[in-house]
Amino acid sequence: MDYYLVIDILGVIAFSISGVLSSMKKKMDPFGILIIAFVTSVGGGTLRDILIGFPVAWMRNLTYVHVILITTIFAIIFRKKLVFLRRSLFLFDTVGIGLYTVIGVEKGLSAEFPPIICIAIGTMTACFGGVLRDILCNEIPLLFRTKEIYATACMLGGITYFILLKFNLSSELVFTISGAVVIIVRSLAVYFDIRLPSVYLSHDHHP
Amino acid sequence: MDYYLVIDILGVIAFSISGVLSSMKKKMDPFGILIIAFVTSVGGGTLRDILIGFPVAWMRNLTYVHVILITTIFAIIFRKKLVFLRRSLFLFDTVGIGLYTVIGVEKGLSAEFPPIICIAIGTMTACFGGVLRDILCNEIPLLFRTKEIYATACMLGGITYFILLKFNLSSELVFTISGAVVIIVRSLAVYFDIRLPSVYLSHDHHP
Amino acid sequence: MDYYLVIDILGVIAFSISGVLSSMKKKMDPFGILIIAFVTSVGGGTLRDILIGFPVAWMRNLTYVHVILITTIFAIIFRKKLVFLRRSLFLFDTVGIGLYTVIGVEKGLSAEFPPIICIAIGTMTACFGGVLRDILCNEIPLLFRTKEIYATACMLGGITYFILLKFNLSSELVFTISGAVVIIVRSLAVYFDIRLPSVYLSHDHHP
Prior knowledge:
3 copies of one chain form a homotrimer.
Chain A: H1 3-25, H2 30-52, H3 57-60, H4 62-77, H5 79-84, H6 88-110, H7 115-136, H8 142-145, H9 151-165, H10 171-191
Helix pairs in contact in A: 1-2, 1-4, 1-6, 1-7, 2-4, 2-6, 2-7, 6-7, 6-9, 6-10, 7-9, 9-10
């Protein structure tokens, strides 16, 4: 297995666990949980591959499906351990968007799209699985719920990637730093409760 | 018309009627009803064809659009008859997922995907149209609402298909038995109120 | 830039502004607003291109992304001016569906689909971005909310297009009249509160 696939699989594991945690809150049965874990982990990459015009990754490589199955079974069995990690949904979701952002950017680059499109692809790859998870679990999507810095962190990670590309760094280093930027920016923003100012029409206050 | 297309058309009819019944509950106008019937019947197949990389079936063969139009008009005119059938939405939705599961599995096979991917494709083909119908009608998707055995029935039908393939049966027989498994499993589960146990974190009870 | 791209860009501008107006109501931050503006303006065309099997337009031509960025920044800065236009969301949404309906019909024709499929493509191109916008902003989709004439106006515009094609008119004239039909039909319907009669099962009144 190459470095690239390893990272992809780590993202699949992180998002599968986030899917299991979300669906257990809704008291789903094991098959329902499996479906949510599956959709959460492959949703973003599926959108990415369809938009670019690539064959859909999880359909061509059974590793994805096996990893999702095993992760889901483990996450269900060890669910009480998972919950000892405070904010575990936050943790796995954040690692997931960090990894998927950079994978999306690199897939866009490999199809020779310009940087701004690659950043858009990376952001969508990262956010779409979680949006599907939240819609299917009847939650307001995380992306829009908390006014957290979420997609913004992905965009910053994508921008970091293209800045680092200008320096003479190994591709693993560029990948790792950009993914870490997403994770750190989102974590710091949540920890220090940093939000961007919201924009609205003043008369909306008195409708 | 070949056997294959006939089955596909039966699925389109079943899902169109389920779309008409759902949208009439929301007191939509005839064009709104037509759109819901259309989305419900072609949604799953569209997702399937896009994932596999096939041309989208309903765009290449006008039979689909004509069948949806005629079914919708008939279902609207004879809506009072439809309602005499108790649980008619359940009936048509269940026949629809039975037929679409096996069609999805076979399309996956024809593109030479391995069995587990074919079962995933079949389950998605069966469930996606109904999920769209429920989202557009502002219902919690059936798939997640009632904790019924729903996607699980589709997966069992898909597994049956690959078990039967090992025996020396005609393709029509394999198709028919697998589709029947989906319909019977879901019907029995609803009739006897059988559910799989739900999995949750115990402290979620006292949030 | 050719006539065709100009019209497409006008549609992008109209839908971007409608996305900005919707998301400002939800007090999103600037990046959230940008994402909603982006999804609203490219959603319909993305679905259209994927269904037809074309490369996705906004990924191949940076003009789209630049126009969305600039429009969003302008719309945020001049948001107080926008609100002086009464019903400005209605206005921009209506212009958007008018333009996108005809663009969708023409893209369908260029791929040699029959008229009824082209009308379906046009209607989807027009409606899908707004449906995504409303789902992401947690509104009941406009398409289904008000029982307004909405998708119906798009279908009438598409039908007009194919009637006009039979006469010896310039393609610009066919385009302009068909788009105007969508805008005028929807505007008149809202102004005079015209609705199509809804269809329902009488016993649904007493559930």
